[in-house]
């Protein structure tokens, strides 16, 4: 690239158009797992029909209207003085919106599906300094490129929204901005009235059962994913390898519908009688390939964990429009040798069984397992974590004229997560973005792509 400089020309605080009455919103343990920002960058093709100033103004107006309805997004986190747990103060403090430009062209960034260090300059990153009361929960930066294209980089605290809620919030904001539209309606997105109260997720067992559960070890309580994480950490602490000392890189592999069907056929055989979802077989294949590429010792425990939406798993289910965090991790574990030797059918069945165990009791046990002090988990090469975004096609959010060229997540704040993304070029294709240790990319590519030839 000729130059990688990005110049910021405007930074302002955006307040709700209609101020809401201040209140304290109690968060659940699921909300408190990660208070830091998750960043996502939308890239849009060039257009000469609007200036940077007019686009910035329309985004500001749209955000003002959206914050009036999604009032927690204009608030701030604050610790409970009694126990230090974070809650959310809805106090109309506002979001941050930044305007910037760069002389480089979007085409100079290459394949937008692959992470690029330059992407970090396209998002506004507030400094925490340990004071959540001054830390905005929503930030955004609109950047004009030399070619006339644009990016909109967003950062949203994970304590505020999970993926589906963030998708609806951003869709609502895009609809209300209406920069290149004649009508203020999102395309193909059913927006629900947001429900911000955590409600069901704040209710645990009755007092007697809750005290019984607290007295049980995590492995007995039913929170399998938390038990597996604990065992992985203990395995690393007692082993010879140091945790989190090596640099991870990200690479995206685009799997066409044909490649996915070949993987299913190669993994499950030609005889039929055992249908499986694309997620199940890709997750199983990814787990095998990544573990092998990482050269994990045969006797070591390895683990696959993946997010499961708890909205309809709770009894009663959460209301439509629920805007908090409602995902728990399901988990399967084997030794590295067992993982290499087991058939795909067996591993897919393990993944299915892990999903089926996520019920009301599992979710309550999971929340109970998060009751203790929270700490950042270092990267573990024995742990493969998958987040399925294929049902949240962020690239379809029309902030500007038409769909985005790509919607690229940046590195997650805590875990090195593999993302499954819907490809903008083919709705039947899946982009798999994988975190890998430097030096393992060639081996992983060989193992991962071989099963789809």
UniProtKB/TrEMBL annotation:
Any one GO molecular-function label of the UniProt entry: acyltransferase activity, transferring groups other than amino-acyl groups
Source superkingdom: Eukaryota
Stretches assigned to coiled coil: none
UniProt xrefs under InterPro entries: CAT-like_dom_sf, Plant_Fungal_Acyltransferase
UniProt entry keywords in alphabetical sequence: Acyltransferase, Transferase
Keyword Mitochondrion: no
Family label: Belongs to the plant acyltransferase family.
Protein's UniProt name: Brassinosteroid-related acyltransferase 1
